[in-house]
Amino acid sequence: MTVESKEQVRFNNVCDFLLARNFITSEQVAELLVRLDKLELTRIDNDFYKRSQVEIDRNKDFDNLYDSIESLVLGYNEKFFQYDVKGFEKFKYLIYEEGDFHLVHQDQSNFYNNRFDRKISFTLQLSEPENYDGGDFQFQKIGGIYQPIPRKSGCLVTYSSAIPHRVLPVTRGRRQAIAGYIYGPPLI
Which of 38, 45, 136, 157 sits most deeply, having the most CB atoms within 10 A of its CB? Predict the structure, then answer.
């Protein structure tokens, strides 16, 4: 996978997110979706979120994806976040169909017997914006105002796992994305 233009990166001190608008090309997204659609998804349906998902194993089909995202996100950490990090969780392929959503939440959590916290999260948008309505990924800012991220296919957003965010209900079509997290020793 060849990573296209990373120069369009924006750092927003209010929301603490970084944006790579053209992280991968439309052709790379199409090739990736062919491989992802072979995976067996699990349906999650509760009051907090509704979607289908599967963890993506690191193997020959996804090594380039892992390498490209890890390189960019670790570079962002070094330059902007400066967290003590130890590794990445397995990436997740997420599908939100009509009626699916994820309420406001933070990705930050303790795991592995409270030895690690999620510190940095990322989302890679795979769906073209014209293929679905609703389903906006939004950051919650101070005062309950929401900041949407671009819906462009191939766009990667990286942010602190402590930032509240949500996915609005999809009203038409299907939103597809890859999400992942970097973990490290607890902040406190």
Answer: 157
- Assess contact for 133 and 173: CB atoms under 8 A: yes
Contact indicator for 138, 83 with CB cutoff of 8 Å: no
SS3 annotation, 48-79: CEEEEEEEECCCCCCHHHHHHHHHHHHHHHHH
Class of the 20-184 domain?
mainly beta
C-alpha distance across the termini of the chain, in Å: 37
pLDDT tens profile 55-80: 999 999 999 999 999 999 999 999 99
* 3-state DSSP helix/strand/coil % of the chain, to nearest 5: 20, 40, 45
Q: What is the pLDDT of residue 70?
A: 97
In DSSP notation, 90-127 reads PEEEEEEETT-EEEEE----EETTTTEEEEEEEEEE-S
CA distance 116 to 121: 14
CA 128/CA 151 separation, integer angstroms: 7
Domain ranges of the chain: 20-184
Q: Extract the tokens encoding 13.
A: 């001190």
